[in-house]
Design goal:
The protein is an alpha/beta fold and 245 residues long. It is built from 7 helices and 8 strands. It has a single domain, classed as 3-Layer(aba) Sandwich (Rossmann fold), CATH 3.40.50. Strands 1-2-4-3-5-6-7-8 form an 8-stranded mixed beta sheet, sandwiched between helices. The longest helix has 18 residues.
């Protein structure tokens, strides 16, 4: 487990030098990054950012990847104007920072985004993906939001919602074998609970040798040993969305 002076292992990883192909929009009280596919589409994916917030280039890169695969992708600011975590921040203050940013209290914002996607973008089928903090938020939404069709939780922090496993929609959980923040025994326990309680399709996959954030915070060109797993994780995510949207 991460030590107490550093309660979260979320270093920024490889910060992409990436501008994004989409645009920033205002959706009621929320700012959001939106990228649309080349051809018109009625399928959309809400992208839930990690602790580094909605403007992280890496997360926008993932949204653009979804758009290139035929989805309207939107990454809203789920911190609603509050500052994202900065790598220079004091890790001792992380737990206090987190208390004001609860991954289980985003329902109001999600409702606003769902309305925007359906009324302004013509989306009829909507899924959700999320990374780390956002991965936990995906699990929360899969437990309670009837309007979403499917979700992909990428290294979502299990301890936030570990006691709840009655998912409403097909959900894919991506984990890293060497994640300092999500020990494998937690993943095993999650699998056991899903097996006991879950009535919908789900999948839990552990990627060997990988660390927290590998799908969106590592660059293939400077981490050649990780490249096959980064690519596999992204492909698996897209395949899951294609199957259920």
């Amino acid at each position: 487990m991460a030590n107490e002076s550093r309660p979260c292992p979320c270093d920024i990883g490889d910060r992409f030098d990436y501008g994004g192909r989409g645009q920033e929009v205002q959706v009621e009280h929320i700012k959001a990054y939106v990228c649309k596919p080349p051809a018109s589409a009625d399928k959309a994916v809400i992208v839930i950012h990690d602790i580094f917030g909605w403007q992280l280039p890496n997360t926008r890169y993932m949204a653009d990847m979804l758009a290139a695969n035929g989805y309207i992708a939107i990454c809203p600011d789920f911190f609603v104007g509050q500052e994202a975590w900065k790598p220079s921040n004091d890790w001792a203050s992380f737990n206090d920072w987190l208390k004001t940013r609860n991954a289980g209290k985003i329902d109001k914002e999600v409702d606003v985004v769902l309305k925007y996607l359906s009324e302004q973008c013509g989306a009829k089928k909507i899924g959700v993906i999320g990374f780390c903090w956002g991965g936990a938020a995906v699990q929360h939404l899969m437990l309670k939001n009837p309007h979403l069709k499917t979700g992909v939780s990428l290294y979502g922090v299990i301890r936030f919602f570990e006691d709840r496993s009655s998912l409403l929609h097909p959900t894919f959980f991506i984990f890293a074998e060497k994640d300092d923040h999500i020990p494998l025994d937690q993943v095993t326990l999650l699998e056991q609970k899903l097996k006991q309680n879950c009535k919908v399709d789900y999948k839990v996959k552990i990627y060997p040798g990988q660390t927290h954030g590998f799908v969106h915070r590592k660059r293939e060109d400077i981490n050649p040993q990780d490249k096959p797993y980064i690519e596999e994780g992204r492909k698996d995510m897209i395949n899951w969305l294609n199957k259920y949207l």
